[in-house]
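Methods: example folding runs. The two proteins below were folded one after another, and each record is reproduced exactly as written to the output file, sequence line first and structure-token line second.
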Amino acid sequence: MTRHLSLVRILAAVALLGVPAGTHALAQGAGVSDGTLNVALEEWSLGFSQASASAGTLTVRTRNTGTAGHNLAIEDQAGEVRYESPLLDPGQSRRARVDLSDGTYTLYCGVPGHRDAGMEATLTVGEGGGGQEPSTGGGGGSRGGYY
């Protein structure tokens, strides 16, 4: 019940403050293209809800297009965080390379309350993956390396 009330308060605050134009649509360029995962962090979305990629090294480009601090975490099916960016202030971006094997991964913002508010997406890697158009919506291995 407390978790539900927190989400309601967050959504009410967003409604009162106003959300910048375009935040409900698919963020331009978000998703997987040519071996690069492009993530647009904004209130309350990653810019897509589902995407797919080929197994191997994936370049992850994360940009905070929102008005609050956000980060990106990639978690495998076992619940292990395979990559996590630092907290990005509005306008900041980060690029990293992450090795991902076949499987389904959950991407989310690790700032408390942001994942529950919709900043979550699914990435399918390997069989059937390979850069399909992303879907609009919400939201012990290597943890990747910055470059």
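Second run, written to the same file directly after the first:
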Amino acid sequence: MHNNALSVYATNAVFSDPWYGVEKSLVVYYRFGKFRVVQKHVTEGKLLKIVFPGFNHLKPALVKLPGKVLVLRAVYGHKDVTKKVAHLVALHHFHIHAENSVFGDSWVGVKKTLSVVYLKKNGMFRKKVVKEHNVLTIHP
């Protein structure tokens, strides 16, 4: 942390190499206090920088849940798919296929992951990640 910013390189030297020979991405979810969850991601070798903007720039988090689950953020490859996943969950689709046919191919030729952060009605946060061609299950 320096000058109200946190910086980290998405490299194998920092995070190890769980998928040798495969280009990876780093996805980070964060929030300041009771404010909304924010997501940032970078591809392997790039610098991820989170700057604390001050409270005047933050939007308050949602506090009322319209259903059993509130999808806060979702990413497939390089693509923010929060709205798509939230729509599926609103339709009671709790088994979500991590497929290009569902989310599009945001990173051609690279095996992707689907990463979802959600809030349950009981106030518990959950994060789930699955590899492409697998099913992510949200338990309301």
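Comment on the second run: Residues 5-137 form one domain.
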